[in-house]
Amino acid sequence: MWATSIFLSRLLGLVREQIVGRTLGATREADLYFASFTLPDFLNYLLAAGALSIVFIPIFIEHLRESGSERAWQAFSATANFIAVASLVGIAVLSVFAGPLADVVAPGFTPAEMGQLVRLIRIVLPAQFFLIVGGLMSAALQSHDRHFLPAMAPLVYSLGIIVGGLVGAPLGWGAEGFAWGVLAGAACGPFLLPLIGCLRMQMTWRPIFSPTNPDLIRYLKLSLPIMIGFSIVAVDEWITKNQASYLAEGTLSYLQYARTLMKVPMGIFGMAAGVASYPTITRLVTAGNIVEAYAVLARAVRITLLLTFAAQVVVTLCGFEFAYLIWGYLSHRFVETDARNVAAVLSLLCLGLAGWSAQTLVSRGFYALGNTWLPTLVGTAVAFSAVPIYVVLRKHWGAEGLAVASAIAILIYVFLLGGLQYRRFVREAAKHGGTLAGTPGILDAAVRMAVATAIAIGLGLAARPYALDHLPGTALVPLLARIALLSLLGLSVYALIARLLGVRELSDAARLLLRRKRASAQ
């Protein structure tokens, strides 16, 4: 259910961005719209909203099993009330100081542009209340093994943005139409849907507000590393937007459109695998089966990398076609030059695609071991160390330089975290009388896949001029034909080289697909 939801969410996200691109194009107004999310995202990150399910679900389930539903809802009430008040205070403070803070978020904009940015920020900020409190209600539903409404919430959120943009376009609202859609989508999806589900379970949300509540203290202790840290996973996009504000009009939009395309395979493969494998890894660690837990984790990472590298081949070879089909086809606001710029940035961003997908799994390995500090500390150290790289590469190569800096930062983070995680699992296995010797790891397979990817992309780029000669133009048929031809060539070369290099995950992935096909047939 979650894999399907994430897949549909990514597709709907593409539709959403398509409408944004067709309405705003690659203009300064689009730059301002994308920049307006930085402060709201910061508040969301500060309250550890992204870790709500990971942190709160074990607390809620423990009370369900040991003390019953009433005690579990007491824990929910104490945590939800604190988060609700904290989010409202944060929204009020950031709204009041949105003006000076906008200068920090995007210092390259003009005073007139800053005024519009502040208006957009103040519209989007209240949405964080619904996203954060709704996330806690979704965690409660998942604790009861009810996943449908939480899984549907992101789809309704995207639909809200789409409707806001479509309604606002004829009225001349532009970016503000999409901003109001963000607010409406957050209220109707991530908040209202879980609320309906919780009410059906006879939720008892009580006016409990006690800073000394043991469940609240436990939640805060587990969330603290995420709250106070600034991991590269979160701040990469903030740094990129900050630096892109110094560049020419439309540059920030190119980076955002490219990131949207990259997030499709990143979400489908990395996020789905992380959500699916985390409960299994946690149960194995809790039971003391450390070697088996690492084997499950490493296998999930390897298969995720196999699929992610394949996606990188396709996206790199067909970046122009994808960008033009989504934002430029039958549109006058997004032209061929814009599609080429997005494709150039996308190919460089995708150098880090494997890192973005793998970090979802690698970080969950630490969470399963009960360690939320180390991923945050490593990510924060990488973020601060990488800032000069972003600045220098932006000055020399503009948007392409920022894309390379992003890829470098995430790859360094994953490499360091993966090495530290392996050492941690080795120590934990030794404590339980086991050893990881002989257990297949990650790095060797990743290197083989990366080599296969480089060769496939190289040959595909060499063949691309011939495809353009025989299938020229931006009409629908040649665009789709080039995508099919270049994808087939790139994936065939990738699979062949990977097989010659002894990548065993090809067979594993084939068996998984065959097993799923048989299950669907039954």
Automatic annotation (TrEMBL):
Matches recorded under CDD domains: MATE_MurJ_like
GO terms for biological process, alphabetical: lipid translocation; peptidoglycan biosynthetic process; regulation of cell shape
Transmembrane segments: 42-61, 82-100, 120-141, 148-171, 177-199, 303-330, 342-362, 374-393, 399-420, 441-463, 475-497
Any one Gene Ontology cellular component term annotated for this protein: plasma membrane
Primary location class: membrane
Keywords, in A-Z order: Cell membrane, Cell shape, Membrane, Peptidoglycan synthesis, Transmembrane, Transmembrane helix
Key word Secreted present: no
Subcellular location: Cell membrane
Keyword Hydrolase: no
Bilayer disposition of the protein: Multi-pass membrane protein
An example molecular function term from Gene Ontology annotations: lipid-linked peptidoglycan transporter activity
Listed InterPro entries: Lipid_II_flippase_MurJ/MviN, MurJ
Highest taxon in the source lineage: Bacteria
Function: Involved in peptidoglycan biosynthesis. Transports lipid-linked peptidoglycan precursors from the inner to the outer leaflet of the cytoplasmic membrane.
Family that this chain belongs to: Belongs to the MurJ/MviN family.
NCBIfam families in alphabetical order: murJ_mviN (TIGR01695)
UniProt protein name: Murein biosynthesis integral membrane protein MurJ
Organism of this sequence: Pseudolabrys taiwanensis
Encoding gene per record: mviN
